[in-house]
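Support request, please re-run this one:
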Amino acid sequence: MTTIMYGTKHCPDVRAALVEIADKGLDIEFRNFDDSVAYLKEFVLMRDKRAEFADKKENGYLGIPCFVTEDGKIYFEIDKVI
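Re-run finished. Output below.
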């Protein structure tokens, strides 16, 4: 299993992360909400249940890009997963 990144290319932070992923040749699976409602549903279920999103929700943020590592940890900055 590889690290998974959830997001949409409409988000500037997601676009910046995708550039860094490409530049560094990282093995990260991008689950683009624009391509699949199923990916969006996966993300929303995770966002509703995981404590890591509490601060994001309280401050009005969606919480993307969202990186889920092989061991199930969640990060919101690419430098935490590289």
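The longest strand covers residues 3-7. The mean pLDDT is 96.
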